[in-house]
Design a protein that fits this description.
CATH superfamily of the largest domain: Aldolase class I
Radius of gyration: 25 Å
Shape: elongated
Bound molecules: phosphoenolpyruvate, manganese (II) ion
Number of strands: 8
Strand order of the largest sheet: 1-2-3-4-5-6-7-8
Largest sheet: 8 strands, parallel, barrel
CATH class of the largest domain: Alpha Beta
Number of domains: 2
Helix content: 40-55%
Oligomer: single chain
Structural class: alpha/beta
CATH architecture of the largest domain: Alpha-Beta Barrel
């Protein structure tokens, strides 16, 4: 957790917390949410006013009148207020109501035309804007959306990791795929990164573990959906927390830090890191030897006009390495991904030769 992210204009000397209902549904619901959250260190009250729904006919948000309810909630509780904008008309309405912060949703972040239109509508203002990850794990597209806003003169920017849509049935509504936010953080180290466990999980019982994992990965804060009575919520009912569940969750979370002052920790971790550095060198050495052999096999295949890709051999390799990995505490998905990556490079190396040989 960073001690000071004022460069981004966020009150981030502590964990940044966005909380509130998925959607603003009625004046009473917005006020009740705000009053329930007002006591507890929330950075801003969230509520969706315009809801991007997968299919028409579901609840698509209350529209403009919801902004007036949020404005009233702010006046009565002192909480800052923020909502999602998907088009210039939304931006104009939010600026008119003086919203404190805006965010670009996952579906909108996927479309550079929409992001550019939002950026153009924001030009000349300096409201803080958070950008959710696009639906697919395209880090360049996520960065591009942030850059479009920065180019329009927005200086207070942050990212929200809300998981990635997948055609596979997974435990989560949107797969966390942590390597995507970690890669964005590597490319934009100063950008505050907030996690939205509600949209990753889709079910409230999965939220605590994801929220804790985000903090363990040094995220700067959380956005959580909180509804006075999730059972009657008009959208995302299964993932919204009651205010009590929200406060219990926040109280249980453990904040980790990038460094520790303990000398014993420093010496033990540096020993272990040395070991890891040595093992990585060995790994690279073995990989380089393996590729050397792969190139020899490539030459042999080329001589005999044998295909680069050998489906049966590949299946054997996968089965064998996954089975061996299981006996060494290495998960199936890890071994599979590792072997896929090695195999992809092996094919590339054999094909370079083949294409060069054909010229
Ligand atoms: C939301 O925050 O309610 C929302 C629609 O999120 P996302 O853009 O992540 O789907
Ligand atoms: Mn939602």
């Amino acid at each position: 957790m960073k001690a000071d992210l004022n460069e981004w204009g966020f009150p981030m000397d502590r964990m940044f917390l966005a909380a509130g209902p998925c959607s603003a549904e009625s004046r009473e619901q917005v006020l009740e949410s705000a009053k329930a959250l007002a006591s507890g260190g929330v950075s801003f009250l969230r509520a969706g006013i315009w809801k991007p729904r997968t299919r028409p006919g579901s609840f698509e948000g209350v529209g403009l009148k919801g902004l007036a309810w949020m404005d009233q909630a702010r006046a009565e509780t002192g909480l800052k207020i923020g909502t999602e904008v998907a088009e210039p008309a939304h931006v104009e309405a939010c600026l008119e109501y003086g919203l404190d912060i805006l965010w670009v949703g996952a579906r909108t972040a996927t479309n550079p035309f929409s992001v550019q239109a939002i950026a153009d509508a924001l030009r000349g203002t300096d409201i803080p804007v958070l950008v959710k990850n696009p639906m697919n794990a395209d880090v360049g597209l996520w960065m591009g959306a942030i850059e479009r806003l920065a180019n329009a003169g927005i200086t207070r920017l942050g990212a929200i990791h809300r998981g990635f849509s997948s055609e596979l049935e997974t435990r989560y509504r949107n797969a966390p795929n942590w390597k995507a936010p970690i890669e964005l953080k590597r490319r934009m180290p100063e950008l505050p990164m907030i996690c939205d466990p509600s949209h990753i999980c889709g079910k409230r019982e999965l939220i605590p573990a994801i929220a804790q994992e985000a903090l363990d990965l040094l995220f700067d804060g959380l956005m959580l959906e909180v509804h006075p009575d999730p059972t009657v919520a008009l959208s995302d009912a299964e993932q919204q927390l009651t205010p009590q569940q929200f406060f219990d969750l926040i109280a249980d979370l453990k904040l980790s830090h990038e460094q520790s002052d303990s000398a014993a920790f420093a010496s033990r971790i540096s020993e272990l890191r040395e070991t890891v550095d040595g093992l990585d060198s060995q790994l690279l050495h073995v990989l380089s030897q393996r590729m050397e052999v792969v190139r020899k096999m490539g030459a042999l295949k080329m001589e005999q006009n044998v295909s680069t890709f050998q489906p049966h051999r590949w299946q054997e390799i996968v089965d064998d390495r996954v089975a061996k990995g299981a006996g060494m505490d290495l998960s199936e998905s890890f071994v599979l991904q590792l072997m896929q990556s090695i195999h992809e490079e092996a094919i590339r190396q054999q094909e370079i030769r083949r294409v060069a040989g054909a010229e």
